[in-house]
């Protein structure tokens, strides 16, 4: 079990995918998720459940929603949570594939104790405009109204986001196609929220082979979105409702998908995502010898700054840091050796640097910055091909970099989270960090997350 994480959410067996039903309810944070508790593959889906009082220490609650009704017999698919009249309502997609024919239904389950769930049945059936690729309801309240966005495919084979509304969060009606894609054949896991006064639509465009009805590739994106203008009919500009225009990537790295947001009691927008985009052969090899596969990203606080959606680990995580600040001598040699790979490296004051390199875990991941080219590149060794995969992104200037490393993952936050690279890694190398090319005024801080560099035995 070399890949079991220390501070990321993962079940003890089976396969985890999308975060579902994120909510703060009755003094607890709830993270539900897509779970195959039997095998490390996608053949079965129910909702698993974690709770926490502080976003740091998590309780494992086991199964929450099982596929025990006809309309969901092939999977309790993704969905979200809403609190109404003191009751927690979970909206999700019931997937039925009997006779090889897909049928999707948006369903409701309720709970008052966060432990026992009562199924209330189907609340939205697929409107005639769409195929049965109609899933992942995300609900929210806006004044006296309730809204639900759903990932969809139009009958013409193009991806879209559908909008339903309700006055009581029980009886729902299809309103309109909120936005459409010309490039992509499907959209999964939409989410809409406001942060720092800006409306944001999150969505996962997906290429599908509509002939064979199979998924080809997908990623997570967002765009600035004037929801009220569109719903009130004030904005009819098709570019605004076009999911291909103004689309930005949520993550610059390798493993990030199906993000979902919720609001914390103090009003912060918090996001979790599934930290995987592994291909089948990568998944197989990664899971070998392990009892489970896949984990969530760290919980991240969202903000909107200078036209960008920014993500940073929640401030609660800072409390968990046990600080080991690198001394001058270590700085000069540029090599920091930790006994474990559970650490956070923070670099600040980077604006005068021209070109440098950070090698993590003995070159398992390599970050490079070149000021003249305005480029940050991250390479990660691929465990199947044994070659480096590389991702690059353009930045106008560089100020800060934060790298959160766990046993088998790395999340790199550039410029206070305006660009993020998320990735899993497959290594037994300990936390060797080599920094080369830095100038004097850059501040490097290492935070050992397991306590003074000591390996903790489980
Ligand atoms: C996204 C997704 C969702 C679906 C779920 C099934 O990863 O395909 O669209 O509800 O996973 O597990």
UniProtKB/TrEMBL annotation:
Organism: [Ruminococcus] torques
GO function terms (MF aspect): beta-fructofuranosidase activity
Superkingdom, natural source: Bacteria
Function, as annotated: Enables the bacterium to metabolize sucrose as a sole carbon source.
Limits of the Glycosyl hydrolase family 32 N-terminal domain: 8-313
GO process terms (BP): sucrose metabolic process
Protein name: Sucrose-6-phosphate hydrolase
This protein's record includes keyword Phosphoprotein: no
Family: Belongs to the glycosyl hydrolase 32 family.
